[in-house]
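During the no-cost extension, the postdoctoral fellow (Dr. R.K.) reprocessed legacy sequence entries with the updated structure-token encoder. One reprocessed record is reproduced below for audit purposes.
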Amino acid sequence: MNSIKSIVTIVTIATIATIASLTSCINEDEQPNTRQGNFEALWRIMDEHYCFFDYKQQEYGLDWQEVYHKYKVRINEDMTNTQFFEVLSNMLAELKDGHVNLSASYDYARYWSWQEEHPQNFSDSLERKYLGTDYRIAAGLRYRRLDDNIGYLRYPSFQSGFGDGNLDDVLSYFQLCRGLIIDIRNNGGGTLTYAERLAARFTDERILVGYMQHKTGKGHNDFSSLEPQYLETSSRLRWHKPVCVLTNRGVFSSANEFTMYMKAIPGVMIVGDRTGGGAGMPFSSSLPNGWGVRFSACPMYDAEHQSTEFGIEPDYYVSLTEEDFRRGKDTIIEFARKLLVQ
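Re-encoded structure tokens follow.
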């Protein structure tokens, strides 16, 4: 009989820039390494530690106890690993959470409907057209000046790091521009430190950007009080002209948090589509059979105490049109350019 050995680890994002990781143990009752034992272990891990049950019950009627009964009858000891993995994956998909994953040596279950069921509002070919061939590269940042003297900064992933020196060079290059476009469309997240580091260049003062809670018990409502989260200003070169941040449904996790930060800063406009969301800090655990499970354990909110788990609305909804695409124009970039020259 194997016990559930659940090591909780912060992955990809941190509470604040000074906290890179945190490790603690989740102690679970023992479950046998059988199909039923692993099912019970997974359902209980989520029941006791997942952080969005009440929110998702309100949003679309999620009933986790009902989910238990729905999937329990599908479990039998004669199932193959592939069949069993599929049933558990479908159960987790009921949570509609891109931070919830089940991993085995041969597969990785994921919920991607937060972006797959929506217009992409992004084109790789148009990105190449606007960047051209002579764009500059500073670590994970790609940038150039457009012909109307608007700065264009493309940042496709917060997994790609950059330093303060990189940002000094980029902002110095843009210093004579009338405005700046930061394009994070299709940015699925990464390290929150980079989101904070970039956003800190657009405020001259410490600002409240949101709140966080931590689980304090096994009940669905067992949370700490709301803990304010602040964005600290950078001591380095900062930007004081108008900014447009371009978003689509592919913006998730720490990129979603970056959008939340920027939305709280005066002079910043969010343009494009609603972000994909992902407002729960992900932790990980394991089942008796060794399969790993990742889940949202700490809920995060914006400065108005609203959850951004299902995304952040832009200030200006703009979609990429087929007509503009045929003309070689990115509707969202062009809309932002007009905003910045007004």
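Residues 1-27 have pLDDT under 50 and may be disordered. The longest helix spans residues 35-49. The remaining legacy entries will be reprocessed before the final report is submitted.
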